Amino acid sequence: MLSEGAVGEGLVADDGVIVGYPPERAVPAGLSVGRDARLRSGTVLYTGSQIGARLQTGHNVVIREQCELGDDVSIWSGSVVDYGCRIGDGAKIHTNCYVAQFSEIGAGAFLAPGVTFANDLYPGRADSADAMTGPWIGAGAQIGVNVTILPYVRIGAGAIIGAGAVVTRDVPAGVVAYGNPAVARGAVAGLPAIAQRIEVDAGVESRPRWRSHG
């Protein structure tokens, strides 16, 4: 485990963790990791990032250089946060997600497994590379399983994006959107309560013990 930079007290790191991996890009040296981080095997933290307290990683997580992470961020197994990203306090990124360069995720937002961000309008073109910008995810937004979000898209605070959606346009705050392409389907405030959507399935002895009403 390398250690180029300041690592706070209370770090718990498995074997096979690398803290301070040197990037090939020319970036300012140093890495700051707040106290009480929990880093599981295969985690790689590049130098040149600022990371708050109580970071939690799963296995084989990569956080590239020039990222800014707040406190209490969780990033689970197989996920990559590419360089130049900003992630707010308490955000959670589940397994096998890709957060493209220059993306921003607000405080308390949640990315379900398999979420992918794009940041390049015309991949392979130099002028497009110069204009790379990933999505902006508002505070508390919930992004469903296997959602793809295209460059420059803004997801408003508290919005919910349904599983499998391809988001090509901005989604306002507090809106439910899904589909390909994703479109607004209603307000989060108007969603039925969980109890209205499921019922106990008495014929099933193990979890899940519920049937959905759709």
Tell me about this structure.
This protein is mainly beta and 214 residues long. It has one domain (6-212): Hexapeptide repeat proteins (UDP N-Acetylglucosamine Acyltransferase, domain 1, 3 Solenoid). It is built from two helices and 28 strands. The protein has helices at 126-130, 194-197; strands at residues 6-7, 12-13, 18-21, 32-33, 38-39, 44-46, 50-51, 56-57, 62-63, 68-69, 74-75, 80-81, 86-87, 92-93, 98-99, 104-105, 110-111, 116-117, 136-137, 142-143, 148-149, 154-155, 160-161, 166-167, 175-178, 183-187, 198-200, 210-212. An eight-stranded parallel beta sheet has the order 1-4-7-10-13-16-19-22, with no helix packed on it. It is globular, with a radius of gyration of 19 Å. The protein starts with 5 loop residues before the first strand and ends with a strand.
Question: In brief, what are we looking at here?
Answer:
With about 210 residues, the chain is mostly beta strands. The protein has helices at about 125-130, 195, and strands spanning about 5, 10-15, 20, 30-35, 40, 45, 50, 55, 60-65, 70, 75, 80, 85, 90-95, 100, 105, 110, 115, 135, 140-145, 150, 155, 160, 165, 175-180, 185, 200, 210. It has two helices and 28 strands.
How is the CATH topology named? Answer: UDP N-Acetylglucosamine Acyltransferase, domain 1
Q: What number is the mean pLDDT?
A: 93
Q: How many helix segments?
A: 2
Cα separation of the termini? 49 Å
Work out the strand percent.
25-35%
List SSEs in N-to-C order: EEEEEEEEEEEEEEEEEEHEEEEEEEEHEE
Strand order of the largest sheet: 1-4-7-10-13-16-19-22
User: What structural class is derived from the secondary structure elements?
Assistant: mainly beta
Tell me about the largest β-sheet.
Answer: 8 strands, parallel
Rg computed from alpha carbons, rounded to a whole number of angstroms: 19 Å
The name of the CATH architecture is 3 Solenoid
